[in-house]
Amino acid sequence: MTAAASASSTHKLASTKEERKLRKPLIERKRRERINNCLDQLKETVVGAFHLDQSKLEKADILEMTVKHLQNIQSSKMMADSKVGLEAQQRYSTGYIQCMHEVHNLLLTCEWMDKTLGARLLNHLLKSLPSYLDILTLLFD
Q1: pLDDT of residue 28
Q2: Is 135 buried (19+), middle (13-18) or exposed (0-12) by CB count in 10 A?
Q3: Could you give the CA distance from residue 127 to residue 123 in angstroms, rounded to a whole number?
Q4: Is 100 exposed, middle or buried (0-12, 13-18, 19+ CB in 10 A)?
Q5: What is one cellular component GO term in this UniProt entry (predicted)?
Q6: Phi and psi at residue 89, in whole multiples of 5°?
Q7: pLDDT for res 115
Q8: Residue 93: how many CA atoms within 13 Å on its side-chain side?
Q9: 135, 88 Cβ separation under 8 angstroms
């Protein structure tokens, strides 16, 4: 490598460092602007959710209230999901029992069906009646 090429690469390296030094404050300012804009949006949401006045809230207050609000949403969703799960389990069980009843009626009308085989089939269906956890697994997987 020649002295001129070495000086040229050293100059490029120095100018790149200077360029980074100049860009860093701009990038940091934009990052802080984004954070503050998001905090302002959160503040509006929190003020509406908690029915607060538009008083000056600190950033930490906004974040804490946002966490509480999200936790409230999550817990109410979990309660709603469990209610839906229970209703679904009841509907599934009712449908299963209705199907068993139809099979029983069909077996009664089939003269060619062996009675012990029919009894074994109904016994199997009864034993296979899914539990609550089985139904939840079927519904939510």
Answers
A1: 94
A2: buried
A3: 6
A4: middle
A5: nucleus
A6: -65, -40
A7: 82
A8: 15
A9: yes
Q: How many residues does the chain have?
A: 141
CA 118 vs CA 48, 114, 126, 128: distances in Å: 63, 6, 12, 15
Give pLDDT < 50 ranges for the chain. none
Question: What tokens were used for 2?
Answer: 């020649």
Query: Residue 29's pLDDT is what?
Result: 94
Task: Tell me phi and psi for residue 3, to 5 degrees.
Answer: -65, -35
The two tokens of residue 97 are: 């029992």
pTM over cut 0.70: no
Q: What is the pLDDT of residue 1?
A: 53
Q: Which parts of the chain are beta strand (E)?
A: none
Cα separation, 52 vs 39, in Å, equals: 16
